[in-house]
Design goal:
By secondary structure, the protein is mainly α. Helix 1 (2-10) runs antiparallel to helix 2 (16-51). It is rod-shaped and about 60 Å long. It is 75% helix and 0% strand. It has one domain. The protein is built from two helices and no strands. The relative contact order is 0.10.
Length: 60
């Protein structure tokens, strides 16, 4: 969405406010993604502490 909006802005089809809003939405979604990864890692560490052993994933 951001790339399409940026291209539209470059071509004069979209205004600056729309571009900035698309950028904000993009950055917010990235922030939520990295927060989710962090929360997953914390939960995994807490589980390992509770079980007293490291969780090993084989990728299957």
């Amino acid at each position: 969405l951001f790339r399409l909006t940026a291209e539209g802005y470059r071509l004069g089809e979209t205004d600056l406010l729309t571009l900035l809003d698309a950028q904000r939405l993009y950055l917010d979604s990235q922030d939520r993604y990295y927060q989710a990864l962090y929360q997953y890692d914390v939960a995994l560490i807490e589980l390992e502490i509770f079980l007293g052993q490291e969780m090993i994933f084989t990728g299957e």
